[in-house]
Each structure stands twice: as structure tokens, then as C-alpha cells.
Fold these 4 entries.
Entry 1:
Amino acid sequence: MIVEVEAYARLHMGLFELGQHFGRRWGGVGVSIKQPSLRVTVNTESSEQVEGIDSEEAENVVTLLCRSLGKKFKGGIKVQSGIPVHRGFGSRTQLRLALATAICKAMDVEFQVHRIAEVLGIGEVSSVGTHLFANGGLVVQLPRQANRTGLGSFIRLEFPEDWWFVVAYPGDVMGLDEQQERRLFATLPPQEPLTCMEISHLILGCLLPTLLERDLTGFGECLSILQRLVGQYFASVQGGVFRMAEAVQLLRMAGAKGVGQSSWGPAVYGLFGDRLEAENAVFEVRKHLGDNWNVYATTAVNHGARVSVRP
């Protein structure tokens, strides 16, 4: 049996409820995008080896999963394409979930994505990527009780596939890994109650309604405000509201309706109304940033990871 799983990167649009008010914390917003993506293949008939990129991470997933299931996996694993690591795309979450999904399918083991996430230690802070792996679209992770773990509740909406993102990130700069992130969160004070209220109001009163109404301008303006408020909270540990402020400004100048930084970056993005606008922006932004930067246009994905099975 051959099982193939394709999963997609996500753009993180911001965390909220970082003050543990009402005894809750860790809300977040994110959207699945077509590029970059990853593909993993599991073949139960091939030799027991792990090939391709991220092979060490793949071996760790196999070990954790088989220990939890009490079973031994026999077969080959190949990571055929991957999402750049520690650039703000949620690569580790997507890779781990894709591998675990493929292995469970190959072993004919019933599984649920939230259970896999718990076994693999995914979603300690943000579970946006896990919800997007399963569902695609735009997800709002609702704050969960501070003394509870797990994925918690979420809202999922379709994202217009005729809206375009221009994504930019440098080839030689990385974001934070999980241990660095954990240490930084431990140093940050609780977010001010008024700021938490403003962000929550912004999401409920503007971001979600404008998305449902397909109001590109309104959604973009709301996204930019959300990103500014979230970025101000993290400015002391990431060097400003945006790590790559020049790239964000170039996206604005190229006509982006809204701008943001995905997670800890360095990836930043702008929102555009159609493909032509996005492609023109790619040209302008790339011209100023140079060859060391990856700049491209992509759209949202409104479905979860794709799974295919062949005998």
C-alpha cells in the first residue's frame, strides 16, 4: 500500500487573549495557503528507511506515534517536498501531522487529528495549524481554559480564493524554534486588559464580518490593525512591530489592502484583490529586496490536507 499526504503552509494572522483574563488564553487566527506545501509518501512494501528532507524529524514522529499506538511500523517513508522551516509557515506542525496521518492510514489504524496532535506535542500555544491541517480556510482558535491542554474550540470560515497573498521572506534569516518560543513567552508580561478587549472586538466586530461579506478593503484594514496591535506586544523581543519592516512597507507601497507578519516571521505578507495586482506587487517588491529574498503570489486553500491511497 502507498499512502500520500499533501499538506499546506499557513499564514498566522495573530494571537489574542494573552493576558489570561476570564481564566482563558491562547486565541489565534490563521489561513491555509497553497504555497509552500509539503508531500509525504508511506510505502508498506518498501524497505524500512526514511528518505528525503527532514528525515530526522520523520524518524521522531514514527517513534512517538508507534510508542503511543503500541505497534511497529514496517515500510518506507519519503518526504518529497517540504515547507521552509522556522520561517513562519507552521512547517513542523504540518509535517508531523502529515506523517502521522500517512502512517496511521497505512497501518489501518483509526485516528483523529486532535489525538495525533496530543501524542506529538503539537499546539501547546497555537492550535491554528492543526485545525487548518484538518479543515483549511480561515480558522479562529478560541481561547481555552488556562489550566487545560488540547486543541480547544474554533471557528472556521471559507476564505475567498480570488483574493491573493504576496508572501516575502529572506533566504538567510530564520524565526524561532519551539524552545526559543517557549523561553520568550515566559519572559513576556500579561497583555493589558484593554488591548485584549480591543483585539477581540476587532476580530468579532470587523475581521469576521468583512470576510463573510467578501469586503476586501475592510478585511485588509482590519488585518493591518490586528497585526499592529499584536506586533506591539511582541516588539520588545522581535525588534519592532514587524521583524522585516522594510518588506512590509514595500508591500504597502505596492498596493496591499492589508499586511502582516506570519508568526515569528521572517515571512511577511500582503493581501491583494486579484492575480494581476499580486503579480505586479511581486515584481516591485522583489526588485527592491533583491535575489536573496523569496517573493511570490499564492491563494488560500479551503480544504484540509489531501490523502490518497494506492494498492
Entry 2:
Amino acid sequence: MSDWFQLDKEYMMSTYCRTKLAIERGEGCKLYDVDGKEYIDLFSGVGVNVLGYNHPKIVQTTMDQVTKSLHLPFHFLNPVAIEYAKKLVDCSLKNGKVFFTNSGTEATETTLKLIDKYRANMHEEREGIVVLKNSFHGRTLGALHFTRQESVYQNFPKTSIPVYEVERENIEQLEETIIHENPIAIMLEPVLGSGGIYPLSREYLHGVQNLCEKYNVLLIVDEVQSGMGRTGKLFAYQNCNITPDIIQIGKGAGGGIPLGGIIVGEKLCDVFAPGDHGTTFAHSSMGTALGLTVLNTLLDDGLMQEAYETSLYLNEKLQDIQKENSYYIQEVRHAGMMFGISVNDTNENVKKLQIELMNKGMLVDVTQGNIIRLLPPYIITKEEIDAFITQFISCMDKVAAVVSA
């Protein structure tokens, strides 16, 4: 294990904070390191592996697609990509269209380019985008400008597009910003993910929709983390019955293969002309085939509803822990299979809690320094949840005891 850690330091750029954990394979919700130790992954490979690892339908689709094509140039029609796009549109923005990218951050970049051309064509007096404080929209240079987390965007140059930051749930501040700054769009995550798992209220999202209609502002929902069934609906915004102009997708959208994209409403479908935008791997044959398999499994097999019901079980267990340990666990927030556990401790000790859990075979994420973030695979069982809860209580008691001592 230590050899892999040293080789990683020697040959891989140091852009990630890595643990000394070298993973060899995965099965279901479990990962196995090079020494054969088993771990339950409660983070789904950063929210990507919504069906877990080596799901039979993912394996079968992969084998079938390998014999057909891994990649087709964008000059040709790609039937599987077209079928996937049609199903995404049918499940979201009727009469809309899709552009596939390689990732969620590229989806943001595509959005920025699209609305800038829309602005130039239709609303030349408008410019700039409103975003929420602590939001996350990607790490490439354009997307980075709209990611409102200082630890992420500090020390990097900014784009020329104005950005206006507002507090979440403050509809009055949002309206004042729209009136004074005259932006072209507002971009938001229906559930702030990297920001700590903060679901936006139904009332707030309805207020945002009303302001967008009142002032002719585009509404962009970033569903890279909250989409593909994670909150009990295909997209989190659908829990609130609003209609965005653009939906950004990524992570689970490719079934484990890098894939992102945007779904746009009817008025934006023809803003791009041929040659305005493109990318070599835009409609990956493998990525779209696997994404379609994920979508069919979620909708046709009923997994999305099953996952939501399982999430209620996990939430009940976590809420019980919070009630019994309110001195240490401040709050548990959830939206389907998205959980944020706010810990009343130093960032250093919350990191220790994460490491203790890893040593006990439980993989979780830490965001914003003191928030345990869970994005479990949708196939996680109650038995696996019970095993996690047992270890969480044990590790929490150990770290909390050190703190109190």
C-alpha cells in the first residue's frame, strides 16, 4: 500500500489530498484495497457510481458496447446518444434539446458560452450571472469564477463575465440584486452539495422562478450532484415543481464513464449554430450507452423510488444519533441520498473521525471542514446502513472522548 502512495507522490500532480488507500476493485457498495480489505463506500465515487460497482446491467451494457464502438466522431449520427438525449428531454424539459460534454464542469462552461451568445442576440444590455454563496459549479477556469468557495477559487484569474453573489434563501436580496445589476441569469444548485448539503426550500425556489419570470432572467439549475435520481426525483428541481431554462448534468449521468451535459428549454434550443461549440468526445458511445442504462434502471425498474425509501431509513438512524449526541452533532440534513452531518468540532478532529471510519471500513467525505457528506449508492442495503451506523457511533464516541478529555 505504501509503495503506491509513494509512486503517486512521485508521478502524479499533487492536486488531490489523498489517503494511503489503494483500491483494486469494487462490487456492489463495497470497495476492496490491494491487500483485500473491504470497505463500504458511502460516497459513490464522488456521487458517480449511483448503481454501485460492477452492477450487472452496467457490465452487460459495457460488454455489448465494446463490440460496437467506443467512440464515434461527431460528424456522424450516434443512435444511442440520440436515444439517451430523447429520454432525458422527455423526463425534463419538453421540446428541449441536449448537448453532451465530458464532465459537469464542462456543462457549466457550455452554459456560460450559450447564455453569452443568447445575451448578445437578444438582451445586449444584460450581463452577468447571480450565484449563491458557497455554491459549486466546477473547477475549470470559467466555471471556477462562479464557484463561490474561496478555498477553491482563490489565487486564480477571473473571467470577464460579472458574477453577483447572494445568500441562499434570501429572496429579497436576490430581487434587489436583479434590479440593481440587471443580470442575464441566475445559476443555482437545488441542493448545495460541496457547500454542505443544504436543500433549497420549495418556497425559495418558487420565489426564484417568479423573479426570473418577472424580470426576464434565465434560470439555470446545476444538477451535476443532485440529479440522476439522487433526491427521489430524476432532478432535484422537480421536487419543487419549477421549470428551469437550463439543466446541467454530470457525475452519475455516464454510469461511471466521464459524461456531462446540458438540457435546454425550447427558447434556447437554436441559439448555437453549427460550429459555435463542440468537443471531440461530446457524445461518447460508451458514456451515453451507460447513461441510458442508468436512466432505464432508475425509471423502469423502480430503483429511484426504492433508493428514496432507503434514504429515509438512513436519515432516521442519523437523526436518532443527532438527538442523543446534540452536543457533538449539530444537525443532519438530507435530500434523498444526499446527507450533510454538521459536527461541532475542529476541522482537524472531523478529519480524524473520517480516518477512524476508514480504518473501520467505512468511506465518507468531509466538506467545508466540519461536515460529513454522504452520497451513498442507490443500491445500499439496510444491513450495510446498520453496519455504518454502528461504526459511526463507535468512531464518534472515540473522537468525541478525545475532544472532551
Entry 3:
Amino acid sequence: MRVHRLSTRCRYTLQLFVGFVRRNGERSAHTHFLCQTILPVDRSAVVRRNMSFLFGNRSTKTFKPKKNIPEGSHQYELLKHAEATLGSGNLRMAVMLPEGEDLNEWVAVNTVDFFNQINMLYGTITDFCTEESCPVMSAGPKYEYHWADGTNIKKPIKCSAPKYIDYLMTWVQDQLDDETLFPSKIGVPFKRNFMSVAKTILKRLFRVYAHIYHQHFDSVMQLQEEAHLNTSFKHFIFFVQEFNLIDRKELVPLQELIEKLTTKDR
């Protein structure tokens, strides 16, 4: 289990999302995934309950300390803007690029945040996602994913879901740790291929959501984590839709759920 460091530029997004889930539990019904009525959930309690598990079993790298956003800085002002939009309960508005802000900067901040969210979500169900229960990385009977990163594994290989997700999270963390791709200091320019890399990261993170929903939603419900999962996924989908970061064909495994979660916000 890995949780990526949050640099000065990206700390605020995770803080905001935690606060939003705590104040505004999502309510939804979803028949295909047997999603029952969702009640508000205190995400801070969820995180505390799972923290020893999350950092105890799957961590192979030490994550760096988070940095505080200094009051009065530009990042702090952006934090207050985002808090106001998230606090309104309007996720469509919350994911929009703040006026005057750089798109690459906004995508970078949110990509790190979603990586951390998905790490914690998957960490809650790793006892149920094993080599035996998930011998292939799939999203239902029609969709199977094979892993390749173009460097260490050049040709796609078939592997179990936990192995695939370990490959995926390691690869994503390597991208986030690359200062030439995700510069941690404000003012350092992004590389020309940044958006392409970010799109690939988000496309692959979507597959973890898809696997959890299709293969482990019963376990999520047993753990009473469905509110956290649904709100996180809705936030993720609104963000990638806002900036066209994932091709529609990649979203097909969860299309029905996406429509149900987003219809009322159109």
C-alpha cells in the first residue's frame, strides 16, 4: 500500500475532499451493482480505522512528510476558493479550473489526490482481492486488463488483479516522483508531454475503480465504505469529464453507474 507525498502544490486537494465527504454524504441508488441507499459517512473515522492496515501491509517505499500551505500564499487563497465550491456540494463546480489558474497545475494536483484516494480505497479490500479470488485483472465478465508499462514490461502480460494493481500503483508513483513530469515547486514549467502522461495515469486508475465495483462491491458494503467509494468515484468522473482526460470507450465498464451517479447533476 502506497500513499504518495503531497507537496506544497497538491496538499490542499486531499484536505478539501476529506472535509467535503464528512459534511456532505452522498445518497444514491444503483441497481446493477446492488448499491443500497447511502448514508453520510465520517471519512476521518474510516481513515483512522484503516490507517494501520493501509500503511502496514503493502508499503514498500517511505512516503515523504506532507507540507503545510502557508497562510497568505497563493496556494492558500486557492485552497479557500476550492473549499467554498466543495462545501456547496456541487462537484461539477468544484472540479472546474479556478479562474486564472494553470490547467497543468490543476490536473497535477488532482491526479496526486486521486492516486491517494484510490490507494486508500483499495487498501480497505485487499483481504478480499487475492491471487485466488482474482486470478485476472477484470471489470466484470467482459473486460480484462493485461499489464505493460513500455519499459520494464514491454509486452502486455496477463496477471492477477493484486499483481496488476501493484504494478499499476508502482508505475504511477514513479511518474509522480519524477520532478520533470510533476515538478513540486510552483513556477517550474511542465513538460510538453505532461497531459499525455496524466491521461494515462487517470485511465489506469479508473481500472482500479472498475475492478472494485465489479468484483468487490459486496465487500465494500460489508465494510460500510460505499459512501466513500461512490463520492470518490463521482468526484473522479466529474473531473475527467470536465477536461476530457479519459476516452469514453475506456469508461464503458462502469457506464451504467456513471450515468446514475451523474444524471441528477446535469
Entry 4:
Amino acid sequence: AVLDGFAAPVVGEGEAHENDSYVEQLVLNAQAAVAELRRRGVSDDRLAVGGHSYGAFMTANLLARTELFRCGIARNGAYNRTLTPFGFQAEERSFWEAAQTYAAMSPFFHADKIKAPLLLIHALDDPNPGTFPMQSERMFQAIKGLGGTARLCLLPAEGHFYRARESIMHMLAEQDAWLDAHMRRKG
């Protein structure tokens, strides 16, 4: 089963900034989605999570904060928000105005909690200032250095979105092999 187009709203009430409770809201959204999948008969051993760009950021956060998924796939993500110090997505505060929020939201700072295998795919020519390839390279090094399971796949001559047939086929082959290796039914 594939849950595609999963919407995980993160909101702020009153004077509160939505990102100040981002992690808590993200986890609650994922728990609700997984509960619905279970209700529909999807087995826990068949749950993986993945995303591109902000979805990759969410994927890494979910692996660092929950044990809901067997593995993850994150493409062209940002994992250390202190490297985007003047805001990102809906975050308009600078790092110096909201340092605790930036650190709390950054899965890089919680890489020691990532126990599920994570495939990181990143385009080498990503022009997005928040998702330079260094983000995936450092996340990979953190997970591996901490004894976790990760793979880093770098796609040459690609931007934030992959266009070349060879790159798309490479990405799909990497994802297929990753899911086969980490989602295969035992016995």
C-alpha cells in the first residue's frame, strides 16, 4: 500500500509560531496516518516513509522521533536548519531569533536517534540555497558515524528536481533496491 499525497498540517495558534511545535504536530500527524493504515489492514512491517525536499526533511524527522517506519527515503532535503539561518518554508524568524526552534527541528541534531535505515539521494547541482548537497552528505556521515544504516546516492548534473532519464532510472533503482532490502518479508 502507498499513502500518496499525505498532508501533515502544522499550525500555530494565537501568537504561537507553528514551527515551535513542529515536531510534536508532525509526529501526531504521522501517528494518525499510521493508525488509519493499520485500520485498513496494512501491517507495521510494510511501513516506509519518504519525501523530496521538505518531505525529505519530514522523513528524517519522523525517523528520528518515532519508530513507526521500517526505513526511509529522503531526496534533496535539508537536515540542519542552522545552515539556512535566515528562514525557510513558513519560518520567517532568523536563527538568532529562534535558535532553539532551528535546533529542535533539525534532524541532524537528532541523528543519534535514527534507528531505521535511511536512503539519502541528492542532486549535485541543486541550486536551492536550503538544500545544497552538503546537507545530505553531512546527514549521511552523522548516521554512519553513529553506527546507523544509511546510503548516500549523489546524482551528477541534476538540479533540485531530476530531469535526465538516467538520473530518474538511477533514483528508481536505488529506491527499489532499498525497499527490497529493508522491507522484505522474513521467511
